[in-house]
Amino acid sequence: MKYQFSICRTMSTLVILLILAGAILLGGSYRMFVHVPTFAITFGLCFFMLLCVYETEFLKFIAAAFRILFCKTLEPHPRFAQIALFGSRAIIGVGLIGMLIGLIQMLSNLSDPQGIGIGMATAFVCPLYSIIISEVFFAIAYQSFKDSQDKQEKNAVLPIVNAGLPLVIILFIISTFGILLSSFSHWNIN
């Protein structure tokens, strides 16, 4: 596969990373966004799902996908586009799994009011990781590797475009605040 260095891609990649880092740091602390178990769930599950399906070809895809963050491909690679499309869908599913795990962990210990906020934050970090990786990594890889002449690939929709994820997130937020309100109503505050 042939690549050509692109100053535009390199600058875009750096600006995307700076915007994400800036948004995180504006909140005061990056530590609330770094949670090792959530990181392991999100990236570990997705990595091994893709490795299971595509085997060593996935490892080749990783090297090529990181390269296209800084270079243009001079020829399409439909198989890598397929891996990116599947990866984008898989990471969103893994993010939802992680969110549900975090919600279950939070619900299992409602007797500790100070742990509710930490549990909610932990539950939200997993979908955040998955959406960032889906949109910043897999979507760029898909668009770079796809064959623009392939009619079947033109109809492929990346999963974040679908309405399912926003609906699940909205339901999660509503249910979380409902849980919080119900847990506060049982306290005897004088």
Give the topology string: H per helix, E per strand.
Answer: EHHHEHHHH
> How far apart, in Å, are the first and last alpha carbons?
70 Å
What's the helical proportion of residues?
A: over 70%
Q: What is the strand content?
A: under 5%
Radius of gyration, whole Å: 19 Å
The overall pLDDT, averaged over residues, is 82
Question: What is the general shape?
Answer: elongated
Structural class: mainly alpha
Across the major sheet, the strand order is 1-2
Provide an overview of this structure.
- This protein is mainly alpha-helical.
- The chain has one domain.
- It contains seven helices and two strands; from the N terminus they run βαααβαααα.
- A two-stranded antiparallel ribbon has the order 1-2.
- α2 (36-54) packs across α3 (56-67) and α2 runs parallel beside α5.
- The longest helix is centred in the last third of the chain and has 33 residues, at 113-145.
